UniProtKB/TrEMBL annotation:
The keyword Amino-acid biosynthesis does not apply. It comes from Lacihabitans lacunae. It comes from the Bacteria. Pfam families: Lactamase_B. This is MBL fold metallo-hydrolase. Its cofactor is Zn(2+). Residues 13-195 form the Metallo-beta-lactamase domain. The keyword Transmembrane does not apply. PANTHER family: HYDROXYACYLGLUTATHIONE HYDROLASE GLOC.
Amino acid sequence: MINIKSFTFSPFSENTYVISDDTLEAVIIDPGCLAQEEKNQLKDYITENKLQVKALLQTHAHLDHVFGSAFVKRTYGVDMYLHKADEVILADVEMRCKTWGIPGYVPVTSDKELNEGDKFTFGNTTFDVVHVPGHAPGHVAFICHEHSFIIGGDCLFHRSIGRTDFPFCSFEELSNSIKTKFFTLPDHYVVYAGHMQATTIGEEKLHNPFLK
């Protein structure tokens, strides 16, 4: 049994995920909780369900995906995993928050690397790690083949794709990442994205206007 709990946090409407299985071990992916009440929501869910948080996984390090990362590391004493190519993005978050007048961010550092081909296991669950640059240079996605889903971050959305107008972005790279790493999966695989509702590989192959 797998449980996929999503929270939508911050003014950026970012999707934070807590993935757990019947062992009650869990991982937190992209904690975007910025306000204290959002952090409390996340913590209360974990406490009420008696989950044991084993790691903090980041699809990438854009500010809306790391607002709550220091909180998670401090609260649960876990390592933060990030692709090394996104370290430059993470290092810039504090300055961007100051520039844009976003209060409450606590700077954070990563502890361990995620790389193409890695397998990350907790409880009875295994994720395949794939490197999918384009929206961010070190963007990764987590594929769970046993349960046919992807935690895809800001690559592929419901009939849309991640922005490519930020520094270190590339539409060509993102399009290639989606077509070679996502669209090679079966149509029934569910994509849980960093924003908006979930979708499927089949839906996006047929209807995504950015990938025709």
